[in-house]
């Protein structure tokens, strides 16, 4: 297997059936980026471009993806960062680190907690203003 050193970015509305090695396919419509695992194992890596997943930054024609690509579910278990189109290999993550990362993901993806009752029942800015206005009217009309 040949390791891929860099990824060329191709913007596409539709993701092709088969991916070429060394190409990062970005679909803004589908909010996803796809590439073949940089270790050369042929596994497809899908990185959703949503706030809780991956952030794509373009530097001219070169893409950076953050956070790192951790293919822990593939046989190769490769782990790397795509930085300005270059593959920067990272250490294989320990099981504990992977689990910690997943736990953090899980927390991030939880729907936001409903606002506390005290906050929703307190006077709103408009309400307070209306109250002042009514007092003002009472005394000065
Ligand atoms: Zn791989």
Give a quick precis of the structure:
The protein is of the alpha+beta class.
List its traits.
141 residues, alpha+beta, 8 strands, binds zinc ion, 4-stranded antiparallel β-sheet, elongated, 4-stranded mixed β-sheet, 3 helices, DUF6527
Regions with pLDDT < 50 over 5+ consecutive residues?
none
Beta-strand content estimate: 25-35%
Give the total of beta strands. Answer: 8
Structural class by helix and strand composition: alpha+beta
Number of helices: 3
Strand ordering within the main sheet = 1-2-3-4
Distance between the termini: 86 Å
- Bound ions, cofactors and other small molecules, one mention each: zinc ion
Overall, the morphology is elongated
Order of helices and strands: EEEEEEEEHHH
Percent in helix: 25-40%
Pfam family, one: BubE
InterPro entries: DUF6527
